[in-house]
Amino acid sequence: MISRNLYILCVLFISACGSTQKLNEKSTKLTDEQLLDTVQYHTFQYFWDGAEPVSGAGRERFHEDNIYPQNDKNTVATGATGFGIMAIISAIDRGYVSKKEGVARLNKILNYLKTAERFHGAWPHWMIGETGKVKPFSAKDDGGDLVETSFIAQGLICVKQYFKNGNQQEKQLSALADNLWKGIDFNWYRNGQNVLYWHWSPKNQWQMNFPVKGFNECLIMYVLGASSPTHGISKQVYDEGWAMNGKIKSPRNYKNINLQFFHQGDAKHGGPMFWSHYSFLGLDPNGLKDNYGDFGMETKNQALINYQWCVDNPNNFKGYGANSWGLTASYSVKGYAGHAPSEKNDLGVIAPTAALSSIVYTPKESIAAMRYWYENKKDKMWGKYGFYDAFSETDNWYPKRYLGIDQGPIVVMMENYRSGLLWKLFMSDEDVQKGLKKLDFESPYLKK
Fold first, then answer.
1. Looking at the whole model, is its pTM more than 0.85?
2. Could you tell me if residue 21 is inside a domain?
3. Which one, 11, 26, 167, 401, has the greatest CB density within 10 A?
4. Among 100, 137, 131, residue whose Cα is nearest residue 117
């Protein structure tokens, strides 16, 4: 029997050579397991080979055409860095890199985060890779970003848990991760109210004025705020803020597929698919319930509606169907857009991350899309870091570009589908368990 690492290398070598011949000579196709390995490995390389070189952290974007916005090539994205940290843990566990290599890279990233600019513990949305200084995301967004910071914290808790019983170097890495996440002052970002605000900066204070309410990508921020043993928030902040004093309950359906929660903006049939990805890379939605609803049902049904909308294709875009679906925030034909199932927000642009990162909710539909794109569209859709960010058959638009926040969830959710690794790490953390109990959540992970 060949070793697991040798098996992986053989599969990836075949993939890199452009062949889809299975190791078993009876078939000309990759098995599902080989296909998952191929996609997960190559997508992970965005955070390994493609990382920002000085910090080792996740870059905002990578363009194979080498055309970038001004001074943006080595911009570090906080959210992508958090997702990348989780992807590296997955890669260590799966044998894509050695534990020694992975620990060295994680130490590099975490020490960069330790010295980077922070604002009451929160990192900015963007940082300069070489220095860790804030790079303004917009004119007034030049300080702390609590949502993106929470994506980092989600990854840091996984690092803490994965290495806490390791050798001396690994235990030191675990302790550093724990220290960094506990330095985030969630309570400050209440702005004195019972809600969490997205942004604050020394120059512009609270002028961004974005109190976070209702279902979007931000649930993890409230869970971590409740979990923080150093700068925690009360259940009242969750109830009045996120849950809007119960107004978050907004039952509706599409083709008898039910949604329970109010989704921000024009989201009658659910918002962009990343709303059911980013918060749930570590936070396992399966069996996760609170006084307002069932998050396992909400995340799965958002994916099912997203899929069904593309199958129904009410706007009659070219290329939509059961094997090619997925609407989320991504590159778009004209810039960047939050694609979602509505006549207004469906622009004929499919983002592979929407379907691939939904594999934990819709395995059959996600693997079908993955296989179709890999076997039939690889020449247009596949590059050195896996599937490109987005495409449109209607506009014959196939840009050879990647975004870090879309790459990360693919790797992490594939790992959660295959092993549950990141879910098990995050949900086993003692502080997270206390936070979930504080908010009156139910979960199979919670100790009685």
1. yes
2. no
3. 11
4. 131
